[in-house]
Amino acid sequence: MKFNAWFQCINGCSGRHPLNEIIYRCPQCDELLEVQHDMDLLKQLSSEEWKALFKDRVGRHEWPYGSSVWGKKEWVCPNLDNANVVSTLEGGTNLFWAERLGNQLGLSDLWIKQCGMAHTGSFKDLGMTVLVSMVKQMISEGKNIRAVACASTGDTSAALAAYCAVAGIPAIVFLPRDKVSLSQLIQPITHGVLTLSLDTDFDGCMKLVKQVCEKNDIYLANSMNSLRIEGQKTISFEIVEQFNWDVPDVVIVPGGNLGNVSAIGRGFEMLKELGLIDKYPRLVCAQAQQADPLYRSYKSGFKKFEAIQAKTTLASAIQIGDPVSVKKAIKTLQTFDGIVEEATESELANAVGRANLTGLFCCPHTGVALAVLEKLVNQGKIKKHDRVVVVSTANGLKFTDFLHKYHTGNLEGISSEFAYSPINLPADYEKVKETILNNVD
Fold this sequence. Notes:
Layout: E1 5-9, E2 17-18, E3 33-37, H1 39-42, H2 47-57, H3 73-76, E4 95-97, H4 99-105, E5 110-114, H5 124-140, E6 147-151, H6 155-167, E7 171-176, H7 182-190, E8 194-198, H8 202-215, E9 218-220, H9 226-232, H10 234-242, E10 250-254, H11 259-273, E11 282-288, H12 293-299, H13 326-335, E12 339-343, H14 345-356, H15 364-378, E13 388-392, H16 400-407, H17 429-439
Parallel strand pairs: 5-13, 6-7, 6-9, 7-8, 10-11, 10-13, 11-12
Antiparallel strand pairs: 1-2, 1-3, 4-5
Helix pairs in contact: 5-6, 5-9, 6-7, 9-11, 10-11, 11-13, 14-15
């Protein structure tokens, strides 16, 4: 059976655009596009047939279906030739039962979706495999694409660099100088990608990359390109499949450029329309207080949205004041009875400190989501027996500088409530024994 998908305006304007067309906005109203699937064709298979097909592909190495994204190829990018798939067998990340942390917060059913356990250390791989694969297909069809480019706060650039290196396609990344971690900076460099460190913030990088891509046969890889959203929506598929097709009560997602909130919503909508689930979770978007334009809009009932100048935050990947996918995110949150909440710098840092003492190893953005979780539990908006999934977006190893400063008390303005430090001792048995017995119950 031949399935089909295309680009279409989120405002419902007429006109369909093939996925191999270089287009990012609606020609009629200049709004963002989204990928639409021929749902009537997809419905020709029953929900049980889809479940059986997906189960048969999990963990296998028949190209490209061993990937958790390409294992759902019919629901993601059916128009793509398998020969053009660029994959690192992404997805399939751990759903961690955070029992100890949940007990501390007053929850009995808390889970952390570990999207940072990925090839480049973040959820961005899920969308980048789709986008770079389509670029490879377009190049094979003769389209003139000199390179692929993105603006980034660190994780998008890492994913773009890695996937373009796998495919042998030139890439360019625009980074805000001194606003990404060293680990994030080194990722595109080590893949030999043209790395531009610019004296601006993410929003400034985004403005420049759009200008460059518009006029120079360079393909735009940011999440305003809906191919990225198609890969990222598989987070929802994975969560439900890992719960044996049950739906959690609440899903909490850190929000910066807001593509992931939109993507996760799209995933649940598709599951419900095809009959694999019968309800939606409640979606929560967690923002850093230093970069909270969506939270401000939420407080007004989404009656207005105003971009802001984002302030410096430890959660650097979501330090975005003018998010590209804001309209998609608002629409999604309205559909999912959504909540937007924010976390201060102290709250997010100490949320990481607490969580890591229970065996997690969180990035600061996950800390934002965990801090928001604690607030919503205290407000009574999340109940003790709710099944809650927090989407952890990146690997804590990318942010060791943040963690080191937290544990050494060197985060300005923050009192580290859960700090630990190594104890320096001479290599003397008696002193070692005394220290151990004084510190171990």
